[in-house]
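Hi everyone, sorry if this is the wrong subforum. Our group has a chain we'd like a structural model of before ordering constructs, and none of us has done structure prediction before. Sequence below.
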Amino acid sequence: MRLFGIALLLVCACLQGNLSAAAQENAADTLITRENAPSGRNIKLTTIASDFNRPLFATHASDGSGRLFVVEQSGQIWIVRAGDKSIHPFLDVSGLVSPSALTDWHTEQGLLGLAFHPDYAGNGVFFINYTDLAGDTVVARYQVRPGQTQRADPDSGQIIFKQNQPYATHNGGHIEFGPDGYLYIALGDGGSADDPLGSGQNRQTLLGSILRIDVDSASPYAIPADNPFVNDETGRDEIWSFGWRNPWRFSFDRATGDMYIADVGQNQWEEVNFESASSEGGKNYGWNAFEGQSPFSDNRTSQGFDFVDPFFVYDHSLGCSVTGGTVYRGEAMPPLQVVYLFGDFCSGRIWAGWRDSSYNWNLAEIMNTEFEISSFGEDEAGEVYVIDYAGALYRFDPQA
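Answer:
Right subforum, don't worry. Here is the predicted structure as tokens:
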């Protein structure tokens, strides 16, 4: 284990954290800082389930069932309960996703995201994000079969959002409900290399943005009245933040509501970003004016918007594609409390990030696996999982 504040191969932005007002008010009840680095010697990864075909995500339904739902890029979602994988998929949309996702070739297309409605236990509604037969992004609403819990109704799908994708890469794909009950949607810049369409700094396109929509108040969706560009012609109403290249997994700290977003870099720098729960949105995260903290293009006229620096960057000597994770809030792993866990798809490294009592960021590498880390996941109890793209789901457990 090593602290990356002194590692020569990595730039660690030990920035003053923008601690949310909610977190400050609840500091007495909610642990938000720590002083010591977690030790990888106290941690092991336990195989929970395997035999998946290119798994990309794992999540839960907040329905008290203790189940995990594992998303495969080729279009199937499987249930895992107590380590057992379901016999039949919860949902199979392999006939709807981009054909490239059904091959063995590398692709960024396919079934990329899954989010359960906050009232899923009562309404049985969930959402998926996939690239369709034409390669365009689709977010669709689905329903479980009446009277059933193990199978979704494949005929219940309703497209609520669609975005043309000019290239096959940088689709983003993650979707998640925030603490405010709104659905957040990550869209990359649409490809290709270097953002040739200038999407990252163009608020007139939804590409290169994280969106925030209300799926309950209107059909197919409504715009939250406090979205940052509502009644502002300089940006699209759906946009929450912009300046993204290819945000590959974001998450909300379940205790504070703070948002963590990993953004896959271009040629040199991978980055992880923090957004306080008190944010009013509208923040510019820099691409393609910057890659990480380094100037990338001449597109640095921000029209009055300041660029937000990532709290952590690393160069391609340590990996090549960042995978965002989650803040640990479970009970089984006290050594990981308050730690944000994330990794790299290419190198298999897993890092821990945390804020000290001065709210400065600290980073440490806690594991160096042989995995292709495609995602992290969290169960209802707050325990954290990591997914190996080769086909297995692992849980962070105490080392005996």
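For your construct planning: The longest strand covers residues 152-163. The first helix runs from residue 21 to 25.
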